[in-house]
Here is the input.
Amino acid sequence: NHHYYMKQQLQWSKTSLRSVCWDLHSNLSLHVMTADGAYSAYDWYLTTNVSPGLSPDNAVTVSVNDGCKLLQTPLRRAVVPPPMAHRTVSLTSPVSQCAVSPSCSSSPARFAVLRGDDCVDLFEESPLAELGQRPKDQCGFRLDDATPKLLGTLSIPHLTE
Here is the structure.
């Protein structure tokens, strides 16, 4: 049961690339030389994006980048095995990074998503307490449609230059 996620997308114009090669000594390092002589080195590391769950109201949400989607599973609400996810947050451009803020019982968890178009989206999760107020389906299960709320988008010009 294998699924390969698109973790990051790097973009250049076809005429601007001079050389692209993987590092011979470090498996997750990429070297790029552009036509104007600019050199960039990219190093990738395995990270897990998860809210810390410091309070009982925190959903302990695990996030996985997959292209223009952020796949999320709030572990206090549902246990869904990969490559599936409890919910999908769709974005307008590929996800580069996700950062989760710690929350306390007085404030809902928030997370920021850095997109490939140099924008940051800030989201807020629904508190767990609201789940008890959700209607039940015909089998008696509570419906969990707790889609994170987009609080705002920040554009950061020239972030990747």
Notes: The radius of gyration is 19 Å. The chain has a mean pLDDT of 80.
